[in-house]
Amino acid sequence: CGPGPGVSPGAAEQAAAALLYDMKGCYSRLRALVPTLPRHRRVSKVELLQHVIDYIWDLQLALQLGPPRPAAAGDPPEAPCMPAADRILCR
Questions:
Q1: Quick check: 22 pLDDT over 60?
Q2: Is residue 28, in this structure, part of any structural domain at all?
Q3: Res 13 pLDDT > 50
Q4: φ and ψ at 76, to 5 degrees?
Q5: Does residue 42 fall inside a structural domain?
Q6: Which runs of E-coded beta strand occur in the chain?
Q7: 34 found inside a domain
Q8: Per its UniProt record, what SUPFAM superfamilies does this chain match (predicted)?
Q9: Contact, 30 vs 52, CB < 8 A?
Q10: Whole-number Å distance between alpha carbons of 36 and 84
Q11: Beta-carbon neighbour count of residue 51 at 10 Å?
């Protein structure tokens, strides 16, 4: 496959390079926005996207549950609805 009719090979290469640059910027931005990413090691794009999905699920759940109520002194700590190991679907 090559550039479409009327598109020079140089213009197609520039467009592909710009798209790749934009995607790298998007991945970098996601890395900065998602707090659940491990900071001590690099993560693959697939793992990054899985953390993004998990974080969105967590945010959605928090919105559905409403604002947190203040914990009373005798209340046990609230358990997560799903263990972290079960949330990561892609391994």
A1: yes
A2: yes
A3: yes
A4: -70, 155
A5: yes
A6: none
A7: yes
A8: HLH, helix-loop-helix DNA-binding domain (SSF47459)
A9: yes
A10: 10
A11: 20
Rounded distance, CA 76 to CA 84, Å? 20
* Cβ–Cβ < 8 Å for 45, 27: yes
Here the tokens at position 8 are 């020079």
- Residue 44 maps to which CATH number? 4.10.280.10
Amino acid in position 68 = P
Residue 1 lies in a domain: no
Side-chain half-sphere CA neighbours of 10 within 13 A:
0
- Write out the two tokens for 84: 């972290």
What residues make up the domain containing 34?
A: 13-65
Taking a C-beta distance cutoff of 8 angstroms, is the pair 33, 41 a contact?
no
Which of 22-26, 42-46, 78-82 shows the lowest mean pLDDT across its residues?
78-82
pTM for the whole structure: 0.54
- Which phi and psi angles does 48 have, rounded to 5°? -60, -50
